Amino acid sequence: MRIAVCDDEKTENERLKRMIYGYAAERGRDIVCDCFVSGNELLEREKYDVYFLDYAMPGMNGADLAEKLKNKYSNAVTICFLTSYERAAVEVINKIIYAEAFLVKPADPERLNEVLERLYSRSYFRRVVLKKEKAARVVYPQEVLYVEARNKVCRFCFFDSFEEFPYKITELEKNCLPEELFFRVHRSYIVNLMHVSAYDKKGVTVSNGSVIPMSRFREFQQAFSSYNFRSFRREEG
User: Fold this and answer.
1) For the segment 39-83, what is each residue's pLDDT rounded down to a tens digit?
2) What is the pTM of this model?
3) Same structural domain for residues 104 and 136?
4) What residue spans of 38-143 are helical by DSSP H?
5) Domain around 58
6) CB distance 39 to 64 below 8 Å
7) How far apart are the first and last CA of the chain?
8) CA-atom Rg of the chain in angstroms
9) Do 40 and 60 touch, CB atoms closer than 8 A?
10) Which CATH number characterizes residue 22's domain?
């Protein structure tokens, strides 16, 4: 798991980084953590799996940076805020832009470990290895918006690209993609439930605006409701 920490206070950056690597060493987790002191610096870098963003930064605050990251990567990002605000203010912030967690500064090591463990155990951090000829690509499920079956290959739509792999869609559905995140809405399409922005009986709209044809409306409704219920329970916990 690749983590970016963005705080204009270098001491806070380094402190959180040490705590993250302490968690990784204790739990045997494969984690790489980089620190940034400005949102513009972070936006120039490649995508990370998790972002810890200080809410109150000069120039571009954490909420503005989070919105830019979500727009850049079609919502395929996990945001956690670092803040000195009281809970009432945090709830206001969360209505502006959804975040996976809030850590009050200075971050408590036990609370940080709880957040990291919850994020690491989430199904979208289970890497999927997709083979292609003599090579392979490691994919995190959260990066995939949908999959389309095309003849003898499947075309993956990522947040910034498309790529084909020599798989049958039934094989991906049963053996590769976590069922709690992905649902087959049509004989030729699988969608990532975390990227669904709208749907009706004719199709599903995903976060990049693509509309996927729908042929299993009732089953999809059940799967989408179950996904949202699990997400709600995790947030309450």
Assistant:
1) 999 999 988 889 999 888 888 888 889 889 888 876 667 888 888
2) 0.65
3) no
4) 39-43, 62-72, 87-96, 109-121
5) 2-121
6) yes
7) 22
8) 19
9) yes
10) 3.40.50.2300
